[in-house]
Amino acid sequence: MKIKVPGEVQGMLNELNNAGYEAYVVGGCVRDALLGRKPHDWDITTSAEPLQVKKLFRRTIDTGLKHGTVTVMIKNTGYEITTYRTDGDYSDHRRPESVTFSRNLSDDLMRRDFTINAMAYHPEKGLVDLYGGVTDMEQKRIRAVGDPDARFDEDALRIMRAVRFAGQLGFTIEEETAAAIRKHAKDLSYVSKERIEAELTKLICSPHPEKIEEMYSLGITAEILPEFDRMMETPQNTPYHFTDVGHHTIAVMQNIEPTKILRYTALLHDVGKPQCKTTDENGVDHFKLHPIVGAKMAEPILRRLKMDNFTIESVCRLIYWHDFGINDDLTLSGMRRGLSRMGAEHFEDYMKIRNADMEGQSDYRREEKEQTVERIREMYETVMAEGNALTVKDLAVKGKDLMDAGIPAGPGMGEVLSYLLEEVLEDPSQNERELLLQKAKIYYSEK
What we know:
The chain is an alpha+beta fold. Helix content is 51%, strand content 11%. A hairpin with a 3-residue loop joins β8 (119-122) and β9 (126-129). α7 runs parallel beside α9 and α18 packs across α20. The termini are far apart.
């Protein structure tokens, strides 16, 4: 098997070899190259120890000397070079307490997580595959190196990585590896929320977000996202759905583009349904107000995952509004109010969620639902084409105009502006300066 190694990487291998050391590219870059994917990073493993590596290269960064890693800078790109090593005990289920440098490549490959990540390559010596990584790739299988129980006991983050790789590559998790994951899922409590979020996001945004169901069956979501378990266990006895809340959620994720905000919105858009579920006298389930409840629930969930504020605000907004306009009695004034509160700039994302949500439902009244979505689109285009005022900034009067009319700055002025905006949202023709000033004086004097 031949892998095309970049010139800079070949140069580093040569530099190490010429100095009398072994050196191979290793891990994810080998895996991706063999799969026909473009490697993001080219990592090197070597028999040279960190200080010996530093002597060979002009620009280096001490990334983790204690663990054997030096980053070599070539132009503006960093390449990690790590010494062959064996790991000591993992008392915290995350990192070894100590490492021992080795002269044997086999020792280094033995400590890695999965067989597909435990392969090394040298342009002249060829592929080193001690654990059947190539066979596992051919069979589209995620399998732990050696004893899976030991691998997950050492580092619980590997639990998340197993499912993430399955999602990114479309692989399945081998049976013994899955059994070990199930056993050690509780150890995810030792992993930082930031690392869990990073791995979950990679899975959510992968080509196979449906692999989150595997997280559920292996007991992973019970530890990191128990709200998803409740969705998986909440039936929807309604003609509009053909499956439980969890499987509907998975279908919505599959039907929307893989951006972080849209995929997390899809994941949590119905998180409020288990709490809102009621069943009428005919045995039909209802989930009234679930978007409002869901938006309130989503915020602490996303904060628990250490998500950034922009993502939290964006996802919660879309969850709150994801059912907007589904009733047949939506009017243009209702559309203006919706756009004013949602933010017209978020309409396209709302439509993506709306369409993906519909794709994840049953075919019951599908034609009517499609017509409703089309009508919402048409109303939006009408409002935007007419240039209707949707925010206080769009009003024909400003704060200074109100002050000149005798309305002092402060909370009272904000209330007046909100009142005027509501008037204009109801009837855009009211957005005339003199008319609004007259309305403002009357409203303020009465209040």
